[in-house]
Write a structure and sequence with these properties.
Mean pLDDT: 88
Structural class: alpha/beta
Number of helices: 12
Helix content: 25-40%
Distance between the termini: 79 Å
Order of helices and strands: HHHHHEHEHEEHEHHHEEH
Number of strands: 7
C-alpha cells in the first residue's frame, strides 16, 4: 500500500504487528470480491469529498478513500485500543441511559460500534453513516455475518441529510480526532438538530487532557487533526451548542467518553412550585 510520512508506528510498532496480523486472511478477504462494484451500492452521487478527508490517515495515502484502509483497519485497531477494542467500544454502550428507538452511528467505519449498538438494542432501528464506501462494504459484511439488520449510508457526518428530530441517540467512536475543529463543531450542531428532545449524544475518542500532556502519543499514527483535537474541549463545544448534562469520563486512562442530552423544550419544572395553603383552598 502507498504510505505517507514515517510515524512511530512505522518505525517501532509495525514490525511487531506484522507478526500478530493474519496477512493471509487479509489477502484472501481482499481477493474475495470486486471492491469497486461492491462499493457502488453505497456511493451517494451527491456526496462531495471535502479536502480535510482527502488526506493521509494512519500512514495510508489518501486515507479512507484508499481501499487498503478498509480491509486493514480491523486487524490493526484490535491491537491499538488498550486494554482491548471490544472492551473500549462496549464502554460507550454501557453509558447509554435511554432506551432509544432510532440510533445513528456517525463515522461508523467498519461498523464495530454499530454492531454493538444493534446487539444492545435489538428492537431499535440502527443506522451507520460513513464517508468511505469501502469501509461501508466491510461494515455490511460484518452485519450480515452477525445476522444483524443495520442500515448503512454514505454521507457526511456534518450534513447527513436526515430529517430533524429523527433520532433518539447519536454516537461517534474514534471520529472527532480525525476532524478539523470547525467541522467537529458542525458535526455536533448536526447531532443536536437530528436528536429529539431528551435524546443523547455519546462520543468515544482519545482522552484530550492526556493527549495534551503526552505529545509523543499524537505521533504514533499519522493523524492530521489530532493536535487540534487535543487542544479543544468537547465539553465546551457541546455546552456552547446547547446540550445539557454534559460530562466527560476518562476510560482506561487514554480514552474518554463524552455525553450530552438535548434539552426537553417546554418542560414544566413542577418541583419548583410550592403552592401555599391558600392556593389549595381556592380549589
Amino acid at each position: 500500500m502507498a504510505v505517507g510520512k514515517e510515524t512511530l508506528f512505522d518505525r517501532f510498532l509495525a514490525p511487531i504487528f506484522r507478526n500478530l496480523i493474519d496477512r493471509d486472511a487479509i489477502d484472501a478477504y481482499y481477493h474475495s470480491r470486486d471492491w469497486e462494484t461492491a462499493s457502488q451500492q453505497f456511493c451517494n452521487p451527491q456526496v462531495d469529498y471535502p479536502d480535510y478527508y482527502q488526506q493521509n490517515f494512519h500512514g495510508i495515502q489518501g486515507g479512507y478513500l484508499n481501499l487498503s484502509a478498509a480491509f486493514s483497519y480491523d486487524p490493526i485497531v484490535q491491537y491499538v485500543l488498550p486494554p482491548g477494542e471490544s472492551i473500549v467500544r462496549s464502554a460507550l454502550i454501557d453509558r447509554i441511559t435511554s432506551q432509544p428507538r432510532r440510533i445513528l452511528d456517525l463515522g461508523c467505519g467498519t461498523g464495530s460500534t454499530t454492531l454493538k449498538l444493534k446487539q444492545a438494542f435489538p428492537q431499535a432501528e440502527v443506522v451507520g453513516l460513513d464517508l468511505s464506501p469501502y469501509m461501508l462494504v466491510v461494515a455490511q459484511d460484518k452485519a450480515q455475518t452477525a445476522n444483524l439488520d443495520i442500515s448503512f449510508c454514505h454521507g457526511l457526518a456534518e450534513a447527513t441529510g436526515f430529517p430533524a428530530h429523527s433520532f433518539d441517540l447519536v454516537t461517534a467512536s474514534l471520529l472527532f480526532h480525525e476532524l478539523p475543529p470547525a467541522i467537529a463543531r458542525d458535526v455536533l450542531r448536526e447531532s443536536f438538530r437530528l436528536l429529539r428532545s431528551g435524546g443523547e449524544v455519546l462520543i468515544l475518542d482519545g482522552n484530550q487532557p492526556i493527549l495534551r500532556s503526552t505529545p509523543w502519543l499524537m505521533e504514533v499514527f499519522e493523524e492530521p487533526h489530532i493536535k487540534a483535537f487535543a487542544q479543544n474541549s468537547l465539553d465546551a463545544d457541546l455546552s456552547a451548542i446547547g446540550f445539557d448534562n454534559v460530562e466527560t469520563e476518562a476510560i482506561w486512562l487514554v480514552h474518554q467518553i463524552t455525553r450530552g442530552v438535548k434539552p426537553i423544550v417546554g418542560r414544566v419544572q413542577f418541583e419548583a412550585i410550592e403552592p401555599t395553603a391558600e392556593a389549595w383552598a381556592m380549589g
